[in-house]
Design brief:
Elements lengths: L21 H6 L34 H14 L5 H14 L2
Length: about 100
């Protein structure tokens, strides 16, 4: 008679283990219990609710600068062609 082997009916992908925290990996021990997050804090500083994203700078093209320089010229508040160009470039780099 053939030997019967037992197999799990749950796929391995569904039983993925949670990754260990870096504290557990570094020390081999679990970190101490975390205090209740809803408890009052001692500082008056606001709590950060999200991580600040690093925004990659957008590419500023020749056409974008030329269009903005023309808009500055057409508004009547501009100066010379060079002044309008440098102002347009500065505004586009700094987000107006």
């Amino acid at each position: 008679m053939a030997k019967k082997t037992t197999t799990s009916t749950t796929p391995k992908a569904a039983v993925a283990k949670a990754p260990k925290s870096s504290a557990v990996i570094a020390t081999g021990k679990a970190p101490a219990a975390v205090a209740n997050k809803s408890a009052a804090r001692d500082t008056g500083a606001p709590r950060a609710h999200s991580i600040t994203r690093i925004v990659e700078p957008k590419e500023i093209t020749y056409q974008m600068i030329a269009l903005r320089a023309f808009e500055i010229h057409a508004s009547g508040t501009g100066g010379s062609q060079d002044d309008n160009w440098y102002r347009a470039e500065r505004e586009l780099r700094n987000g107006r």
